[in-house]
Design a protein that fits this description.
Length: about 525
């Protein structure tokens, strides 16, 4: 009995030492400080000495197994998430023959790499989801429906760490983004085309800014790049359809308003030519516009573009004529003052102390200074006009009359007028001399020729307007300065300006040969 008990104790001691050795080996420990170095004493004492160390090593082994299990489980879980099989993760099997710290560090290093890869993938997923959200907002699509179709875990209500990061999910998200970007590109192009059509139609029909502002949300992206369009709903289908409806409406309205718009531009063109004193056949131009519109052989946009080009050319031509027209205006003003001065000089009562006489006297002084400048002004105007004609190879026509011909005739008439004035002054001096001689021979006697007379020497105006020179300030050659037939053709020769005062030779001859006295000039 004692022998069996001793053998049993020896076997237990041997088993304890083997287990101790195995634990040390599994844990990667070469030695353990809790094992007594001395093996003296009874077998029972030796067992009691080993038991605490064995218990501690067993506990340490259990803790190490848990560590390995957790690390390996995390590795398998993340690997399954990456592979897209997270729903079939099984518990890992821990190899208890090698649970050294070195082996644990290897597993932990592998886990860290997987965790980093998961973080990177999750970041990509969130970026894709954000891009999809923004694209859906711009396109007016249902974001939740779109993202759930990729993967249910991408729902906003899902925890971030629970979102799918598999290769399939990333690929599907990338494909979805590309699809939405292409849809955005196509819609933007279509919207920009519609916006361009709207602007063209608005310009064509002179649409008010208030009406245009109703489609600011369409035209604001007319030149935007695809990345610049970020406003929610900017490319929604209903917005594009709204723009299409408006384009169709304006297209139908365009045909009915074309005549109105074309005639408005024609009026602008006529006004430019009128201010520049250029004659055009307005009736023929309007008839041509009507025939073009009614025939339908020309696009409305082309017709208006051609009229805009005519307006631009007319403005350019008018601008080139401005300097000459300013001098013509000065010339006309000077001629008006000259006409007034002639009338004033023929008034025998001009020096009477009547109301306003001092104002007329001041005006007469200024008028004389201005009249003295007429020859130089005419010479300058002739030089400018000739330079203009040489530069452009055209004839400078003023209200249908060649300006140089008009100036030449004015110069000739002015010379004739000055000669006539000189003859009248000489004749007056002769009469005064004869009167003095008669008085010296016969004595002073009443002379009916000296009676006051209000009859004017000056004959009718060259244009038939009379003394009302302020009725017009332009060379109104349609009255008497030139003869115009009923069919619009002019006479063979242009006449002097409306405000030029000419002395009719018949009237001058009657004064010379008649008994009416001539008024003296200051």
């Amino acid at each position: 009995m004692a022998v069996n008990s001793r053998a049993h104790l020896l076997q237990a001691l041997a088993d304890a030492r083997v287990e101790l050795t195995n634990l040390l080996s599994a844990l990667g420990e070469k030695t353990y400080g809790g094992i007594p170095e001395k093996t003296t004493g009874t077998i029972k004492e030796q067992l009691e000495a080993i038991a605490p160390a064995l218990k501690k090593l067993c506990k340490q082994k259990d803790e190490r197994v848990n560590e390995f299990f957790n690390v390996q489980y995390q590795i398998q879980k993340i690997s399954a998430e990456i592979a897209g099989t997270s729903d079939v993760v099984v518990n890992p099997t821990v190899d208890d023959s090698d649970m050294s710290l070195k082996k644990l560090d290897e597993f932990q290093g592998q886990l860290q790499e997987l965790q980093k890869e998961k973080s990177d993938r999750l970041h990509k997923v969130l970026e894709f989801v954000s891009t999809v959200h923004d694209l859906c907002a711009v396109l007016g699509l249902d974001f939740m429906q779109t993202i759930i179709e990729v993967h249910p875990s991408l729902n906003d209500g899902t925890n971030v760490q629970s979102k799918s990061i598999s290769n399939a999910t990333l690929a599907t998200l990338a494909k979805t983004v590309l699809s939405l970007m292409e849809e955005k590109k196509q819609r933007l192009q279509k919207l920009q085309d519609l916006a361009s059509q709207l602007v063209d139609l608005w310009n064509l029909m002179d649409t008010s800014m208030e009406e245009r502002s109703l489609f600011d949300h369409v035209t604001c992206n007319i030149s935007a790049s695809i990345n610049e369009v970020t406003i929610p709903g900017a490319l929604a289908l209903d917005l594009i359809e709204q723009a299409e409806v408006e384009v169709d409406r304006l297209d139908q309205l365009k045909a009915s308003r074309m005549k109105e718009i074309a005639f408005k531009k024609q009026s602008e063109l006529e006004q430019i030519y009128a201010h520049a004193h250029i004659e055009i056949d307005t009736d023929a131009a309007r008839d041509k516009i009507l025939s073009l519109i009614d025939s339908g052989n020309v696009e409305p946009a082309e017709l208006l573009a051609d009229m805009d080009n005519q307006i631009s050319n007319a403005k350019e031509e008018a601008l080139s004529r401005n300097e000459i027209l300013d001098k013509v205006e000065k010339w006309m003003s000077a001629c008006e003052e000259e006409s007034w001065l002639d009338d004033y000089n023929q008034d025998d009562n001009r020096y009477n102390a009547s109301r306003g006489a001092h104002l007329n006297l001041k005006r007469a002084e200024k008028a004389r200074l201005l009249v003295n400048k007429i020859p130089a002004l005419v010479d300058s105007l002739v030089a400018k006009t000739r330079a203009w004609e040489q530069d452009r190879g055209l004839t400078f026509v003023y209200d249908g009359v060649h300006l140089l011909a008009m100036l030449d005739e004015y110069t000739l008439l002015r010379q004739d007028r000055e000669e006539e004035k000189k003859r009248m002054r000489d004749h007056k001096k002769f009469q005064e001399q004869m009167s003095k001689e008669q008085e010296s021979v016969f004595g002073a006697s009443p002379n009916p020729a000296r009676q006051p007379s209000t009859k004017k020497v000056v004959g009718p105006r060259a244009n038939g307007v009379g003394a009302n020179v302020n009725s017009t300030r332009r060379l109104s050659l349609q009255n008497g300065s030139k003869s115009i037939n009923r069919d619009g053709r002019r006479g063979s020769r242009p006449a002097a300006p409306v405000n030029y005062v000419a002395i009719a030779k018949e009237d001058a001859s009657s004064h010379i040969s008649g008994t009416d006295p001539l008024p003296s000039t200051p």
